[in-house]
Amino acid sequence: MEQSVYSVKQLNSYIKNTLENDPFLKNLTVQGEVGNCNYNRSGHVYFTIKENTDVINCVMWKGNVAKLKFKIEPGQQIVVKGYVGVYEAQGKYQLYANEVEPAGLGDLYKKYEKLKAELEERGLFSDMYKKPIPKYSLKIGVATSETGAVINDIINVSSRRNPYVQIYLKPTMVQGELAAQSIVNSIKYLDEQDLDVIIIGRGGGSLEDLWCFNEEIVAQAIFDCQTPIISAVGHETDFSISDFVADLRAPTPSAAAEIAVFEYDEFINTLERYKLTFRNQIDVKLESYKNRVEVYESKIEKHSPMAKLTTYKQLISEYRDKLSYNFNDKFAEAKRMIPDYKNNLKNYFNDKFLRRKHTLQLFIEKLEGLSPLEKISRGFAYVSGADGPIVSTKDVDVGDDISLIIKDGKIDAKVSGKQDGEIYGKE
Questions:
Q1: Statement: residue 426 has pLDDT above 60
Q2: Staple partner for 240: which of 83, 200, 213, 308, CB 3.0–4.6 Å?
Q3: pLDDT (tens digit, 9 = 90+) per residue, 70-80?
Q4: Checking phi first, is residue 9 left (phi over 0); if not, alpha (psi -120 to 50) or beta?
Q5: Is the pTM value of this prediction over 0.90?
Q6: Which of 90, 95, 84 is nearest to 9 (CA)?
Q7: At what angle do helices 305-370 and 264-303 cross, to 10 degrees?
Q8: Closest alpha carbon to 82 in 143, 26, 35
Q9: Is the pLDDT of residue 130 over 80?
């Protein structure tokens, strides 16, 4: 019977399905020593655990890495909870870690989580109680071991940044059964020294090494301290209860010194900038006030009685000059125009006289034309009776005596007859 031939992909897929469907391999716990360990830039962690010469590859995805309470490092004994799977593209099986804890420290972690929850519920972690770290501290207290690298790092950083800052070291036990009370005593002592800020901390270590910073009495002493406290315990990935209660957490003691100690040169440069800015602003203000004073002086001078008097005197002089000039000019003009005015007046009167004479002549002629005597001299007669002028046949009767006044005398006559009606135009 001919045997089937499978591709590499088919074989890897079969192995993957077989392992991932095995109930035992879906949820298991493995203990071993960390071999290689790589924190990838993606956030995932790739590491191996070994026992003598036996090794298994492990991977922990980014979401689970965020839940770690410590940093995985070579040489650690750890307990890994997860499942076995196959990276099919390379035909490698590996342990996919959901949880990782230091071996033998499970109870200590439970105690840590329990105390953390209690203190958080009591409000010791609340931001409303945290005091701001002074920006320009000159007196800094440090509670740490006098022989460890921590105090040397803090002194080196402080000296480099600001040689005028004073460091007050309170030698403190930072590991062991008596360490917690030693930390409490140091905090209380330094809080009475009128300092600007206090740094508490130590270098890295295991959870057991750092445990004194997870004690309730230490947390309460930090909370009760009136001086701002920076907690710098362990490495950047290490978190202690002191970090949560302190006013500020620094990832390392050196970082705590960087935060607490202001840089002197930068401070001086800032002061110089402020000085220059202040001087410029003062100059601008002075120039502005000077200009305003000049404006006010100008206004005062302009509106002062003397200025007004001078102005009025000048105006009077100008008006006098104008008036004198206008009067003299007008007088000279009038004097020059007198002959013209005389001729014009003479011509005006002559013309007026002639016009009046002509008009009078016309009136005389009209009056002469209307005069009864003129009419009589041309053959007309003025007829009158006993009762006055006779202008109509109705004014006389036949037999009445009448008088006729003519050019050279008077004629008496008697009416012998009369004829009514118009006789003009009849032959």
A1: no
A2: 213
A3: 888 887 888 89
A4: alpha
A5: no
A6: 90
A7: 40
A8: 26
A9: yes
